TrEMBL record:
Keywords, sorted A to Z: Metal-binding
Protein name: DDE Tnp4 domain-containing protein
GO molecular function, one term: metal ion binding
Taxonomy, superkingdom: Eukaryota
Glycogen debranching enzyme C-terminal domain ranges (all copies): 225-630
Gene3D superfamilies linked to this entry: 1.50.10.10
Stretch forming the signal peptide: none
Organism: Parnassius mnemosyne (clouded apollo)
Keyword Nucleus applies: no
């Protein structure tokens, strides 16, 4: 066992002769009666400590649980069975082996932080004062930290998997011990399962082994492996398509829900990006997809090329569809009202804009459904964004324009979309015609001029000028004119839709009114509905905030920042400020780098409260926050190279 663990550490983490990463984790509890200060820890909370040794795949090898919060990690280690058996040599750890490419013999060791003593079997970093100015010691500390971080990551996975750990546990200490032990066992079980990724395996039969257990994926894998990941995910979601939509809830494919309008457009955009960037990327379009769901009226699901699945999604939108969710009712959604289960999608024949939804559901990423009886918000979406959402219009243009080009290049067999009318008449658009219709109408219906103009569609609803509307045709017409963070997303996806001068004015308003330290406000601070601090536990009768109703009504989300920076780059050249914008964009990413370095999760959060303040109900490390920042950084690096010697140096 020990040699296999060491092999994994060397192969996956680049750290030889390591048999585990060691650390302690405090689980916050309600102080037991008459317990004094024994559970009181250095973080000024009451806790029980889990001491764990973790392998290279985030699995727990050995755990000690139940220690009082006041005890140090080193003290717990010295008194626990693991520490005692390592000390007296009864764990049957092999004596060691030569380091790779060397004749230097070294023992097998576990790695820990400064809280643990230096032993022949326990390696810790050099103290800071010893490492300062010594490149070898600094490099050693860095390599050790990367290996040791696995135990911190395992704790993070554990606490995110089991919600009971995300709040203070009001249980007897012995019950907390049982919960910790059982969840550690379940955690290992989930890590071991080869089919728990479910749908990914369904359309990725030939995927590489790491795809079947993403928790074992090591950082820094080759780019081709990342493309394999992307391919597997694209095909897996293709398998799930139904009603022309990608599900917002998979449920293992058993009771999937199709009540979001944006996922399918992002999926199509991801195919465009994959084909454009992956080696032999366009081969993806012909990959077979084993569908999970039969089309209505068909006896069984089919296997078909990806390009036909894509075409089905687009044809369904162009034809238009109104349907009711399967199993509609409290069994699938405890808060949604009856009308919310009715789903509509379509393409406006005049503008080419995708539209859908209603006032009782929330089909984009701004998906907060009210749940407070006391505040009267239960079943009432905070941000339905029905009609035509600005970023979905941009995505539709991006996809249609790209498919027109791929059809001309004989890579995509379908020339366009068609609608059969009730009388039998047929309306058909090529993809080029569809894209042009969107382009021709976009500024007319979304731009809010800087000064009152005859072009104003609803001057009585204009609150901010020199912005782009958030939606067009919403049931709540005033919602069309709210200043939100979604049009910079549209700009990054489809800059061709925007007048460059208008775009720059609008982006200046985003910088002035929405930009925060780490992300973008989700609503104009001057809007009547703005509430910048998110608290999902708010039990008041205030309808603006009860049960976190303001999730997307002001709090500063991190993921739109990357799109905002990319939008700046897209229009900087035509506004004569390209080099200046590159420098400013690097500076805007600097707070994210600081957050990344300071975070125990080595990530950036889902959202912040007003002014970038910590939000207790935010995910502390969210993939799309990091992913969009990395996309922006990638484009910045390309821009910096294009500028050559005149390029600004990126901030550290």
């Amino acid at each position: 066992m020990w040699r296999k663990i060491a092999e994994d550490f060397e192969k996956l983490r680049g750290f030889p002769n390591c048999i585990g990463a060691l650390d302690g984790k405090h689980f916050v509890i309600k102080a037991p009666a008459n317990s004094g200060s024994i559970y009181f820890n250095y973080k000024h909370t009451f806790s029980i400590v889990l001491l764990a040794l973790v392998d290279a795949c985030y699995k727990f090898i050995a755990v000690d649980f139940g220690a009082y919060g006041r005890n140090s990690d080193g003290g717990i280690f010295a008194q626990c069975n693991l520490g005692k058996r390592l000390e007296n040599g009864t764990l049957h750890v092999p004596i060691g082996k030569n380091l790779p490419g060397s004749s230097t013999f070294a023992p097998y060791v576990i790695v820990g932080d400064e809280a643990f003593p230096l032993k022949t079997y326990l390696m810790r970093p050099y103290p800071g004062h010893q490492a300062t100015g010594d490149a070898n010691k600094t490099n050693f500390n860095h390599r050790l930290s990367l290996a040791r971080r696995l135990v911190e990551n395992a704790f993070g996975i554990l606490t995110q998997r089991f919600r009971i750990f995300q709040r203070r546990m009001k249980l007897a200490p012995e019950n907390v011990d049982y919960i910790i032990l059982s969840t550690c066992v379940l955690h290992n079980f989930l890590c071991e399962q080869k089919d728990y990724t479910g749908l990914i395996n369904h359309s990725a039969q030939n995927a590489q082994p790491h795809l079947l257990n993403p928790l074992s994926v090591q950082p820094g894998r080759p780019a081709n492996d990342a493309f394999a990941d992307a391919r597997a995910h694209i095909l897996a979601y293709a398998a799930c398509l139904r009603h022309g939509l990608i599900p917002n809830l998979l449920d293992g494919g058993h009771n999937a829900r199709f009540n979001c309008r944006d996922a399918v457009w992002w999926w199509l955009q991801s195919i465009k990006q994959y084909c454009s960037e992956a080696p032999q990327g366009y081969a993806l379009l012909g990959e077979p997809v084993a569908r999970l769901f039969a089309r209505d009226g068909e006896p069984a699901p089919r296997t078909q090329p990806l390009y036909d699945v894509m075409q089905e999604a687009l044809d369904t939108h162009f034809q238009g569809l109104v349907f009711r969710e399967r199993n509609a009712g409290r069994a699938i959604d405890a808060h949604m009202t009856d009308k919310g289960f009715n789903v509509q999608i379509g393409i406006d024949p005049e503008t080419g804009f995708p539209f859908g939804g209603n006032d009782y559901n929330c089909g984009t990423w701004m998906d907060k459904m009210g749940s407070s009886e006391a505040a009267g918000t239960r079943g009432r979406p905070a941000t339905p964004r029905d009609g035509s959402a600005v970023e979905l219009v941009a995505l539709a243009y991006s996809v249609a324009a790209w498919l027109a080009a791929q059809h001309r290049a004989a890579r995509f067999p379908h020339a366009g979309v068609a609608r059969r009318h009730r009388g039998g008449a047929l309306t058909a658009w090529t993809y080029a015609q569809w894209a042009e219709r969107i382009r021709r109408n976009f500024e007319r219906f979304f731009w809010v001029p800087a000064a009152p103009s005859a072009a104003d569609l609803r001057p009585d609803l204009v609150h901010r000028r020199a912005i782009y509307k958030d939606t067009h045709g919403a049931t709540r017409p005033w919602a069309d004119y709210q200043l939100r963070c979604n049009f910079p997303v549209a700009m990054a996806v489809a800059p061709e839709l925007f007048d460059p001068k208008h775009a720059w004015l609008a982006l200046d308003n985003v910088e002035r009114l929405l930009l925060g330290p780490l992300g973008l406000k989700t609503l104009d601070p001057a809007d009547w509905a703005y509430r910048g601090d998110y608290d999902n536990s708010n039990n008041s009768d205030d309808p603006n905030v009860a049960h976190g109703y303001n999730y997307h009504q002001g709090p500063e989300w991190v993921w739109p920042l990357g799109f905002y920076l990319r939008a700046r780059l897209a229009f900087a050249q035509e506004n004569g400020v390209y080099a200046k914008t590159v420098a400013a964009s690097y500076a805007a990413l600097a707070p994210l780098v600081s957050e990344l370095r300071a975070s125990p999760w080595r990530g950036v959060p889902e959202l912040c409260n007003a002014g970038g303040a910590y939000c207790a109900d935010s995910c502390r490390s969210q993939a799309w926050s990091s992913g969009t920042a990395l996309e922006a950084l990638h484009e910045l690096e390309l821009a910096r190279r294009a500028l050559g010697p005149a390029a600004p140096a990126p901030a550290d």
